[in-house]
Design a protein that fits this description.
Blueprint: H1 8-21, E1 23-24, H2 34-40, E2 51-52, E3 55-56, H3 62-79, E4 83-85, H4 91-102, E5 108-110, H5 128-131, E6 134-135, H6 148-158, E7 162-165, H7 176-185, E8 189-193, H8 198-202, E9 215-219, E10 230-234, H9 253-265, H10 271-284, H11 287-309, E11 313-314, E12 323-327, H12 335-345, E13 347-348, E14 350-352, E15 366-370, H13 372-377, H14 381-396, H15 401-417
Parallel strand pairs: 1-13, 5-6, 5-7, 7-8, 8-9
Antiparallel strand pairs: 2-3, 4-10, 9-10, 11-12, 12-15, 14-15
Helix pairs in contact: 2-10, 3-10, 4-9, 6-7, 11-14, 14-15
Length: 429
């Protein structure tokens, strides 16, 4: 590529170098394996394949059919469901497809408020799910915990047709059984978005929503370590998506979901993405992936303990999963200032609102940190304690140039100790 595109090639190599020297602690980021990289860049990107295996609108899809069915079968086995759609381009279209499948415009939905750890597509006002449906978000309590009694009371009052559960900044285990009971009481569908915790669920390090939620959505990157993409999982009668839509019942969920994805929302799937999902699911089914999932949580807890001991105020007091949400105001700083200072020393986190945050979204009171990517590189709880101490030092003195210089050297040495893609000399070769 260097001889073909002298502008793009060096940028790709610079990004590889940046990923190698920066400790990625944004909870939604991870590193895919060489196998997933290879599948993502494979010749499958050349094919067009509207439809589903055995029911395509283009010829020449016999290999693509086999690849898609391989991905679907691996997902069914890994998550213990009878039906999986692997075609959604990403998590947001997956959630929108579920709404399209199960709701009429104007129907009421409930999801965790974005300002309290939820996701845009769970009904936030600027999302399509908040524009085309009547959204009545629920919130956490003042300490950041889900209040299931309050959610139940709200559901009885609002009578939603669909309840989203799942989060982007909630550090505790979600009680899917309690939420399922609430949904059943008001005759609502329960949709569990496990995009952040799918790898933990696959690795038996977090309870699964399967058997409680009617539909499960997830991205395929994050803790699952796959490509950018998404899946929708459910149980029900075999899908026949090319026929007229059946009734909106739980038995017909597979057909409703498939028809909402195609032709309802998308055209041709991204076949290179499907191949890469298949590769990632194979890796997630291996015994070592369980070890990986458990180590993510061990690392997160070690980081949480270190930051709490240094004076950080952790929302809910700790973590049960891959992330932690920390109020940085006890350090005398703000989320944005903290994130920018940490990036200067080689640590990437994101500034994030905390429950009842008095500050504005672009400079909130908190930061969000996670351990999936560093765990992929091989970092241990002891490493996380060292990193946590560096983070605390910087948060106490984000404008101390000498401290930042010294800490940057420490972080660079930590990054070099666990090389990323060591056999890859150039991504633009």
């Amino acid at each position: 590529m260097h001889t073909i595109d002298a502008q793009l090639a060096p940028l790709l190599d610079q990004e590889l170098d940046r990923q190698r020297r920066v400790l990625a602690m944004i909870p939604s980021e991870n590193y895919v394996s060489p196998a997933v990289l290879a599948a993502t860049g494979s010749v499958c990107t050349n094919k067009y394949s509207e439809g589903y295996p055995g029911k395509r609108y283009y010829s020449g899809n016999e290999i693509i059919d086999a690849i898609e069915e391989l991905a679907r079968s691996r997902a069914r086995e890994l998550f213990h469901v009878s039906h999986v759609n692997v075609q959604p381009y990403s998590g947001s279209p997956a959630n929108l497809a579920v709404c399209l499948a199960l709701l009429h415009p104007g129907d009421t939905i409930m999801g965790l408020d974005l300002r309290y750890g939820g996701h845009l597509t769970h009904g936030w006002k600027v999302s399509a799910t908040g524009i085309y449906y009547r959204s009545v978000p629920y919130i956490t309590n003042a300490e950041g915990w889900l209040d299931y009694d309050a959610i139940a009371t709200q559901a009885r009052t609002e009578r939603p047709k669909l309840i989203f559960c799942g989060a982007t900044a909630y550090p505790r285990i979600i009680d899917f059984a309690k939420l399922a009971s609430i949904a059943r009481e008001v005759d609502a569908f329960l949709v569990a978005d496990i995009s952040h915790i799918a790898g933990l669920v696959a690795g038996d390090a977090h309870p699964s929503p399967v058997g409680h939620a009617d539909v499960v959505t997830t991205t395929t990157h994050k803790t699952l370590r796959g490509p950018r993409g998404a899946m929708i999982l459910c149980n029900g009668l075999p899908s026949d998506p090319l026929k007229a839509p059946p009734e909106r019942t739980r038995d017909h969920l597979p057909s409703l979901i498939d028809r909402a994805v195609f032709p309802g929302l998308q055209g041709g799937p991204h076949d290179h993405q499907t191949a890469a999902i298949a590769a990632a699911l194979h890796e997630a089914a291996q015994p070592e992936f369980r070890t990986y999932a458990q180590r993510i949580i061990e690392n997160a807890r070690a980081l949480a303990e270190t930051l709490a001991a240094a004076g950080g105020r952790l929302i809910t007091g700790g973590t049960d999963n891959h992330l932690l949400l920390m109020d940085v105001t006890p350090f005398g700083t703000t989320g944005r200032i903290a994130a920018e200072a940490l990036y200067r020393i080689g640590i990437s986190v994101n500034f994030n609102a905390i429950p009842n945050d008095p500050r504005k979204p672009f400079d909130p009171s908190g930061i969000r940190l996670g351990t999936p990517a560093l765990t992929t590189r091989g970092y241990t709880p002891e490493d996380m304690r060292t990193i946590g101490q560096c983070i605390a030092e910087v948060l106490r003195s984000p404008d101390d140039a000498l401290l930042l210089h010294r800490t940057q050297a420490t972080i660079r040495a930590i990054a070099d100790a666990y090389p990323l893609y060591p056999t890859l000399s150039s991504v633009a070769a």
